[in-house]
Design a protein that fits this description.
Shape: globular
GO molecular function, one term: 5-amino-6-(5-phosphoribosylamino)uracil reductase activity
Number of strands: 11
GO biological process, one term: riboflavin biosynthetic process
InterPro entries: DHFR-like_dom_sf, RibDG_C, Riboflavin_Biosynth_HTPR
Distance between the termini: 18 Å
Helix content: 10-25%
Domain Bacterial bifunctional deaminase-reductase C-terminal: 63-188
Number of helices: 5
CATH architecture: 3-Layer(aba) Sandwich
Bound molecules: NADP nicotinamide-adenine-dinucleotide phosphate
Number of domains: 1
Largest sheet: 9 strands, mixed
Structural class: alpha/beta
Radius of gyration: 16 Å
CATH class: Alpha Beta
Protein name: Dihydrofolate reductase family protein
CATH superfamily: Dihydrofolate Reductase, subunit A
Length: 214
């Protein structure tokens, strides 16, 4: 079976934003409060960043469980990796995730400002200045026959949709408005020319949108 490029658990506000304005070290999501955006995922038993036992096992958990299933590499944008912009002042920043990042695969960080690869536990970060198609080819080679996850942020997902490279996409819409920042869409209907869409409301208050290529 061919390798897919999959988006999972990417969460937007009702008004279509995946991050607020003014991303910084103190506020990775800008002015937006990440709690109402992300609490649906953090409550589930399968969430990758869960440190305590327990968690829900319903519909939301099915979605977070699928996040890691058969994934062999991730592609992300530089702004997801960190709040720095422009040339690196040094290479001390190693991402938000501490010494044991949850990816456990190669991760390809797209940036015009290259730096050497490094490994933390079982995750290796590589920095790539490449077109979406080139980045995907590289990630597929590294994924050992498994699928590639497109991890965000917003600009990177938009870029890969624009290049028609995304096969499946799970977007959660949280019941909150952000108002300004990085916007994924005006409406999910924008994508119906190239994707099928199932819309599944969850008891937690989020709505899961499942897109797959026409
Ligand atoms: N809502 C969610 O589920 C979710 C998930 C993940 C992240 N986030 C949030 O999303 C925000 C980041 O999203 P964002 O839209 O600001 O940025 P982003 O998509 O993470 O990164 C965009 C940057 O990546 C680099 N880039 C992208 N494509 C490239 C290419 N083809 N070649 C070279 N460089 C390329 C460029 O950086 P250079 O300047 O280095 O060239 C570009 O400015 C953060 O606040 C993060 O916390 C939200």
């Amino acid at each position: 079976m061919s390798q897919l490029l999959r988006v999972h658990c990417f969460t937007v506000s009702r008004d279509g934003f995946g991050a607020g304005e003014g991303q910084s070290l103190e506020r990775p999501f800008g002015h937006a409060d990440p709690v109402p955006l992300w609490s649906w995922a953090g409550a589930t038993a399968s969430w990758v960043n869960r440190t305590e036992p327990g968690g829900t096992r319903g519909l939301d958990d099915c979605m977070t469980r699928d996040h890691i299933r058969n994934i062999g590499a991730e592609i992300m944008g530089r702004n997801k990796f960190g709040p720095q912009r422009g040339p690196w002042k040094d290479h001390e920043w190693r991402g938000w995730w501490g010494g044991t990042p949850p990816f456990r695969t190669p991760v390809f960080v797209l940036t015009h400002h290259l730096r050497p690869s490094f490994t933390l536990a079982d995750t290796t970060f590589h920095f790539l200045d490449a077109t979406p198609a080139e980045a995907l080819e590289r990630a597929k080679r590294a994924a050992g026959g498994r699928d590639v996850r497109l991890g965000g942020g917003v600009a990177t997902i938009r870029e890969f949709i624009e290049a028609d490279l995304v096969d499946t996409m799970h977007i959660a819409v949280a019941p909150v408005d952000i108002g300004r920042g990085e916007r994924l869409w005006d409406s999910p209907a924008d994508l119906l020319d190239r994707f099928h869409l199932d819309t599944v409301p969850s008891p937690s208050g989020v709505t899961h949108l499942l897109f797959w290529r026409r």
